[in-house]
């Protein structure tokens, strides 16, 4: 609108382009602050972080470390371990409590041992 108003006075094209560029930059700077206040910050979890609270089933227990295993959580196989080093058993139901790197820290829902 600023450039349209300036074109009424028949300024040269380069002045109109300059006015358009400057007003666009200023409006973007102002509108970003305004838009972020209205919309707020979005909370987006990473893929692995979204698994916290999900349940799963133990599919394979590590022989040398019986508190570590593989489990199927949300349709995918994940390496899991218990926080307090409780023994895990195949077909035990677990719930994901936290994530450390790519290992899920779990709690046993129905202890079979």
Quickly list its features.
113 residues; alpha+beta; OB fold (Dihydrolipoamide Acetyltransferase, E2P); rod-shaped; single chain; five-stranded mixed β-barrel; 2 domains; 30% strand; 29% helix
Task: Describe the 3D structure.
This protein is 29% helix and 30% strand. The model has no long low-confidence stretch (mean pLDDT 85). The protein has a 5-stranded mixed beta barrel. It has helices at 2-7, 13-39, and strands at 55-61, 68-73, 76-82, 93-100, 103-108. The protein contains 2 helices and 5 strands; from the N terminus they run ααβββββ. It has 2 domains: 2-39; 49-108, Nucleic acid-binding proteins (OB fold (Dihydrolipoamide Acetyltransferase, E2P), Beta Barrel), CATH 2.40.50.140. By secondary structure, the chain is α+β, with helices and mostly antiparallel strands. The protein is rod-shaped and about 85 Å long.
Number of strands: 5
Radius of gyration: 28 Å
CATH class of the largest domain: Mainly Beta
What name does the CATH topology of the largest domain carry? OB fold (Dihydrolipoamide Acetyltransferase, E2P)
Question: Concise description?
Answer:
With 113 residues, the chain is α+β, with helices and mostly antiparallel strands. 29% of the residues lie in helices and 30% in strands.
List strands and helices in order, with pairings.
Layout: H1 2-7, H2 13-39, E1 55-61, E2 68-73, E3 76-82, E4 93-100, E5 103-108
Parallel strand pairs: 3-5
Antiparallel strand pairs: 1-2, 1-4, 2-3, 4-5
